[in-house]
Amino acid sequence: MKRLLITLIAATALAGCLATPEPTATPIPTWTPLPTFTPTAIPTPMTAPSPTATSTAPPTPTPRPLDSKLLELLSGFSVPIKGARLPTSDGVLPNAPRPYRYGLHEGIDFFSGDSGVPVVMGTEVVAAKDGTVIRADMDYQEPTKAQMDQYLAIAREKGFTPPDILDKLRGRQVWIRHEKDVVTRYVHLSGIASGITVGVAVKKGQLIAYVGNSGTPEAAEGTSDGPHLHFEIRIGDTYAGQGLTMLETRRLYEKIFANER
Ligand SMILES: [Zn+2]
Residue 204: which domain range? Predict the structure, then answer.
């Protein structure tokens, strides 16, 4: 038995030895193209793009100094809700993206929970500075759900929010003109204070309106969800902070409200 086993092992070993030389001969030509891949695989220039990448990175976080003339123009404004502060979330500041209407935010949203004071339906809104009322939507009509869908469909189709649609999405509004073509807008209101009509002079801190959700998809759905004050500071055709980075925008509004609350 043992002898038979040994011969069997020896036979298979020999067969194995005989079999090996053949395959070793064939793989060689198939592997020869490999060296041609190695030069392309050595991505030594990869080290070159990385310094350029690091050199382009710093400019973004470094905020440019704020224009002193702009700061002078925007001095003396207070927040439009007594006791409120600039929200901490960048998503409610000017220049924040608004994908639902394919545009950028142009004002500040004061919501409960991120404004330092409660902001609910009916919270009092005050004038941010002395001025004259140039718009007060007394006969405001809330859009229906179908109209709201249509407004948003137009924005989607165009890839941006046309000005007339944007105006409807702001809901019930009060606008106040201050000196040098600076206008403040108080938006999504639920009501306007008595005596506030076009042409009336108002004082800083004076009650002008009440917080609501008009012009929002929530209001079009017939709910009172999401009440907040959207507040804009406009300079001619632009909004304060237009064209700035988010960090610069925050710095600008921090400066505007630095001494005024
Ligand atoms: Zn807003």
Answer: 69-256
For residue 12, how far is its CA from the centre of ligand 1 (angstroms)?
A: 83
**pTM for the full model?**
0.75
Q: How far is the CA of 72 from the centre of ligand 1 (A)?
A: 25
60 in a domain, yes or no?
A: no
Number of domains in the chain: 2
241 and 161 inside one domain: yes
Q: Are residue 205 and residue 85 in the same domain, yes or no? A: yes
Q: Which of 102, 120, 69, 3 lies closest to 240 in space, CA to CA?
A: 69
Measured in angstroms, how far is the CA atom of residue 61 from the centroid of ligand 1?
A: 25
* CA 64 vs CA 166, 178, 247: distances in Å: 30, 27, 9
- CATH classification of the domain holding 95: 2.70.70.10
Block means of pLDDT (10 residues each) for the chain, 261 residues, are 45 41 43 42 42 51 84 93 96 93 94 96 98 97 96 94 95 96 97 98 98 97 97 96 95 87 48
Question: Does 63 map to a domain?
Answer: no
Within a domain: 114: yes
Do 146 and 35 sit in the same domain of this protein?
Answer: no
Positions of E strands within the chain: 97-98, 103-104, 108-110, 124-126, 131-136, 174-177, 182-187, 191-192, 201-202, 207-210, 229-235, 238-239
In this predicted structure, what is the pLDDT of residue 43?
42
User: Tens digit of pLDDT for each residue in 156-180?
Assistant: 999 999 999 999 999 999 999 999 9
Residues lining ion ligand 1 (Cβ < 5 A) are 109, 230
Rounded distance from Cα 107 to ligand 1 centre (Å): 6
